[in-house]
Amino acid sequence: MEPSLNERLDFGKMGHGCKHYRRRCSIRAPCCNEIYSCRHCHNEATSLLRNPFDRHELVRQDVQQVVCSVCDTEQPVAQVCTNCGVKMGEYFCTICKFFDDDTEKQQFHCDDCGICRVGGRENFFHCKKCGSCYSVGLRNNHSCVENSMRHHCPICYEYLFDSLKDTIVMRCGHTMHHECFQEMVKRDNYCCPICSKSVVDMSRTWKRIDEEIEETVMPEDYRYRKVWILCNDCNDTTEVYFHILGQKCGHCRSYNTRAIAPPIVLLGYSSSNRWSGIGCGVLCHWADIDILQFRSGLKCKSMLTKLRSVPPKHALSLFVENPEP
């Protein structure tokens, strides 16, 4: 008895493939003319080549030929084999040249990403600024970082955009593999490896440090010593009393801070008897002058007009670059 059309299409389903995908075909890589089960198998093999100039990655959209795993017929890319009539993949994308029999992954093609994703189209949205698909739970609920997914994981350095591993968007907006994030936190590292912002709620830890500082009296020589700090969480600069257990940000109350040189603006005195400022930073107060924080060159100029009465001999000549986040 002749098998029905559906039986022929489903023949061998989930019985072929590699460790990456269940599929009933292999691909011929146009870059090296070799046959591999999938592009990941190709990339893994070529990354091990002795000559570094021979190492390369397969561009999925460039695949033109596939080989049916059931009848071993090579043919142009299509979902159904032209010889034996089996579906070479229950899910098939004509753009990515992608085959997969395991449809429980809920594959879908994102036109904005330009590649196929898993997890169901209804469960994701494409963030234009971040340049990738995120879970709908992150819609209007994450810090956007331009093209944040088009970078390498800061821990294992695998490219994140088309990685098979789950990724996580941290509070700061930077991304990394979820398993790398868990491993990092397990080792008591709670700061983003890229920007150093806190990646978890640290309020309880800050409260504990408050209590420890209150109970720890500094030696007389250090008790009234002040230092300038930069807060990694809010990027604000503050002058605080030094303590061996940590320096607390005066703006957001975080202890995720680091000591910096005093951020002083370079001042000059022109022939027109007017003050001028170069650069951005913080002008430390002198006499009765309050601390003025400058955000741009234009604002520097406008705020420095308030200091015309200060004698030229008191002009500060040090300049410290204002750190960027």
From TrEMBL:
It comes from the Eukaryota. The keyword rRNA-binding does not apply. InterPro entries: RCHY1_zinc-ribbon, Znf_CHY, Znf_CHY_sf, Znf_CTCHY, Znf_CTCHY_sf, Znf_RING, Znf_RING/FYVE/PHD. The keyword NADP does not apply. Residues 88-152 form the CTCHY-type domain. Pathway: Protein modification; protein ubiquitination. GO terms for molecular function: ubiquitin protein ligase activity; zinc ion binding. It is found in: Nucleus. GO terms for biological process: protein ubiquitination; ubiquitin-dependent protein catabolic process. Residues 11-86 form the CHY-type domain. One of its GO terms (cellular component) is nucleus. Residues 153-196 form the RING-type domain. Keywords: Metal-binding, Nucleus, Ubl conjugation pathway, Zinc, Zinc-finger. Gene3D superfamilies: 2.20.28.10, Zinc/RING finger domain, C3HC4 (zinc finger) (3.30.40.10). Pfam families: zf-CHY, zf-RING_2, zinc_ribbon_6. PANTHER family: E3 UBIQUITIN-PROTEIN LIGASE MIEL1 (PTHR21319:SF20), RING FINGER AND CHY ZINC FINGER DOMAIN-CONTAINING PROTEIN 1 (PTHR21319). This is Uncharacterized protein.
